[in-house]
Design brief:
This protein is an alpha+beta fold and 181 residues long. It is built from 7 helices and 8 strands. It has 2 domains: 79 residues, SP0830-like domains (Alpha-Beta Plaits, 2-Layer Sandwich), CATH 3.30.70; 94 residues, Alpha-Beta Plaits (2-Layer Sandwich). A hairpin with a 2-residue loop joins strand 6 and strand 7. Helix 3 crosses helix 7. The protein is globular.
Length: 181
């Protein structure tokens, strides 16, 4: 089966630096096949006969032993990645509105988790939010449409306060990974 391992928090802001060649070698050493990485943020495409739910602890433990720090991993199959890209919950008009506000930045981000977000906790967390950014929850993903750079998004900042581990990728990256699968 084809999978993608999405690592959280590596090669961000000059911290937790991991060379993609070393990360690829880790996956090869674990016995995975057809190993490829995409950009420096820790996206590893690979094939394995191991059941999906067993991959996360195996990869996280090997990563910590190899690189000396923890990095949470979210695993998605090729089918799941295709579904994430196809399930975009924003319409063309609202995407265009966001793009017109601040051109030349990414506006759509997908936050991925191992389990479905707690709707009640998110509702409480977002109760005070009154900005333009929009979000939708689909399965274990939270889609955000930013009307400015993600760095300036108060909604994205609030998401990082959720108790569950999330890792985010922009839509452009998700589409590219889906094509690589």
């Amino acid at each position: 089966m084809k999978y993608v391992a999405f690592f959280r928090g590596i090669n961000v802001g000059g911290k937790n630096i991991v060379k993609m060649s070393a990360l690829s070698q880790l996956f090869i050493d674990l016995g995975f096949h057809s190993v490829k990485t995409y950009i420096q943020s820790g996206n590893v495409i690979f094939t394995s006969d191991i059941e999906q739910q067993l991959l996360k602890p195996l990869i996280e433990q090997a990563f910590q032993e190899q690189f000396g720090f923890q990095s949470a991993v979210v695993i998605r199959s090729d089918t799941e990645v295709a579904k994430i890209v196809a399930s975009l919950p924003f319409g063309a008009v609202e995407i265009e509105q966001a793009q017109n506000e601040v051109p030349n930045v990414e506006h759509i981000y997908i936050y991925m988790s191992d389990c479905a977000p707690d709707i009640e906790k998110i509702s409480r967390l977002f109760a005070s939010y009154n900005g333009k950014d929009k979000f939708h929850i689909v399965d274990c993903e939270i889609y955000i449409l930013c009307f400015q750079s993600i760095r300036d998004s108060k909604l994205a900042t609030l998401l990082m306060k959720l108790p569950q581990t999330l890792t985010a990728r922009n839509l452009k990256t998700m589409k590219k990974i889906s094509m690589m699968l």
